[in-house]
């Protein structure tokens, strides 16, 4: 991930980033855990719709700019994995993958780079929805595989503390309310 330098840059990076997540999340149809199958389906459904929206905005507002192109995947090929290996690998890689989208969205918002209100609202939704999913995925990873398997996730200004500890147990999702968009 490189710094987001504007709305077009955000959208053109986010399209292949979402497509990467969709490809990995489809593999969870094979998971033995219903929670993982639901998580995978939710990511596929949500992010497929978001890719369509972003491509529409790129076509509408940035027709003269180059189309988004994959810049290398951050998710491993999960097709050869099954059972616990599939679930653990997905969680260990999707948490940092989501964190990249959260950071890109927060960067766009903090620097006031969104040119359209729709994109600013979209970036807030991506940030907040994926933060809630990160919390859920961290709970699954800890419950099923132990806290030693958690990937490093930095704390971010305006976001709840993500360090492992008793405060992380039983948290259903990020609480509603405003989140910091300025440093």
UniProtKB/TrEMBL annotation:
InterPro entries: DUF305_CopM-like, Ferritin-like. Pfam families: DUF305. Residues 173-183 have a biased composition (Pro residues). Residues 159-183 are annotated as: Disordered. Residues 8-141 form the DUF305 domain. Signal peptide: none annotated. It comes from the Bacteria. This is DUF305 domain-containing protein. It comes from Nonomuraea spiralis.
């Amino acid at each position: 991930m490189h710094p987001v330098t504007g709305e077009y840059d955000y959208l053109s990076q986010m399209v292949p980033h979402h497509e990467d997540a969709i490809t990995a999340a489809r593999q969870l149809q094979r998971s033995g855990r219903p929670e993982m199958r639901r998580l995978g389906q939710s990511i596929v459904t949500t992010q497929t719709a978001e890719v369509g929206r972003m491509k529409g905005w790129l076509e509408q507002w940035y027709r003269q700019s180059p189309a988004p192109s994959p810049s290398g995947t951050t998710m491993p090929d999960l097709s050869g994995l099954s059972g616990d290996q599939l679930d653990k690998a997905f969680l260990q890689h999707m948490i940092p993958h989501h964190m990249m989208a959260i950071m890109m969205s927060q960067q766009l918002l903090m620097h006031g780079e969104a040119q359209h209100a729709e994109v600013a609202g979209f970036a807030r939704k991506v940030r907040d929805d994926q933060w809630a999913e990160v919390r859920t995925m961290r709970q699954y990873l800890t419950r099923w595989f132990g806290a030693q398997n958690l990937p490093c996730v930095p704390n971010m200004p305006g976001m709840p503390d993500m360090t492992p500890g008793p405060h992380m147990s039983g948290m259903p999702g990020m609480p509603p309310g405003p989140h910091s968009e300025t440093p």
